[in-house]
Amino acid sequence: MTLSPWCLLLLAVPLLLLGQLLLRRVPLLARGSIPVPVAGGLLFALACLLLRSAGLEFSFATKVSAGWWTWLVTPDHEWLARPAKSLNLPLLVGFFTCVGLAAPLRLLASGGRMLLVLLLGTLLLALLQNTVGMALASALGAPALLGVLCGSLTLVGGHGTALGFAPRFEQAGMAAAATIGASAATVGLLAGALLAGPLGAWMLRRRMAPAARAHGSATGAEAAGGTASVPARPPVADFLADARALAGMGRNALLHLLLVAACIKAGAWISFGLDQLGATLPAYMGALLLGFAVRAAHDAAGAGWLRGDTVNRIAAVLLPLFLVVTLAPLNLGELAGVAGPMLLILGVNIALTLAFAACIVFPLLGRDREAAVAAAGLAGFGIGSTATAVAAMDAITRQYGPAPRAATIVPPCGGFLIDLGNAPVLGFYLYLSSVILTT
After folding, report:
1. Most exposed among 44, 115, 147, 351, judged by the fewest C-beta atoms under 10 Å?
2. What is the pLDDT of residues 157-216, one digit of tens each?
3. Does 322 map to a domain?
4. pTM flag (> 0.70)
5. 270 or 231, which is more confident?
6. CA distance linking residue 387 with residue 190, whole number of Å
7. Quick one: which of 432, 407, 346 has its CA closest to 382?
8. Percentage, residues of the chain above pLDDT 90
């Protein structure tokens, strides 16, 4: 039995409330900086797994062809054919549009060391993931291409990159590239959602402990960044409060929502043009680039009508909706049954990424709160997606205090800049795999 994708949309808010309740009742999860949509979505996926184990066979469709839902994210000539699009696509593209609109160039320009470390670090991570993946695949007697499929293609790249490069992998001899890529990216998404937040919280607690001892009565949080101490029950994101706050902005919120919608629609055409030029980029890229351009023009003109707080509030509503709708329909039973070599390569690369973020990126960035949040963000998009990275960073900063530079620099780095660097890395490893095959 296949259930309608609209069920997921109807369940989204109740599942977010369930996630909030779970984190408030189990403070240990909140202290680990598990995001609310991750808690609610995976709890629902676990409940579905138990029902399937009891003999109730069902699944959720995740694509819709309703014109009113797909129009914004589809060029009109394509939309007339009513193509099936992922239910979560408008939410994803809307979120990345907000990332572009909320990113002042002056703060991005001041990113300096952090931006350089994140970009070069992620490129090095992509090389490591592919090298380790190919070595493990060869050791296990599997095709070398499997190592790349379970490397930066799906971990740093995510679902969009995996699907975009699938035809090239199929031409290179990996017939099931699309299926393997989708499965590997889903495992990465799940791992990123579960592990990025706890990693950041662990780095901060480890950093705060010696400082707290050195300052005597000072709490760890005060020593690390001058913020108030972390309460016994850490703060948990409140989706309804964010939605009410957005509604309370009235006309200002409506105007910004219209701007976001316009950027999504125009961005669909930009993405179409990039595709025609042969660029293999995620579906949200056009809207993200347009958001950056609008914000840059706004700031260059000295205008003040584009409010960052309003855009961030819209993003705070779209992001949890996207994540919970993405995670809730996961079939955990199928993921558990992923082929042995593939799961082993993914596991090693995920552990490598977490160690890389904690042992290399965190120290290079200075071992402070900004460094911990940025390193957690790199772990989030290095094995999952930029959306999971932002959700993890939000959970960390609610508990340990703000990290404005990391919050501004990580989303464009993970959502845009790294894709430009990952593409030639993947091209090199595709060539390397073909050389291995012919020798």
Report:
1. 351
2. 888 788 778 878 888 888 778 888 888 999 999 999 999 999 999 999 887 666 554 554
3. no
4. yes
5. 270
6. 12
7. 346
8. 59
How many domains does one find in the chain? 1
Report residue 309 as tokens: 């707080």
Does residue 315 lie in a domain region?
no
* C-beta separation of 154 from 275 below 8 A: no
352 within domain boundaries: yes
- Expressed as residue numbers, the domain containing 181 is 89-214+237-309+335-438
Confirm whether 148 is domain-assigned: yes
What residues contact residue 52 under an 8 Å CB cut-off, 6+ apart? 58, 331, 333
Could you tell me which of 126, 135, 122, 166 has the C-alpha nearest to residue 345? Answer: 135
pLDDT of residue 110: 66
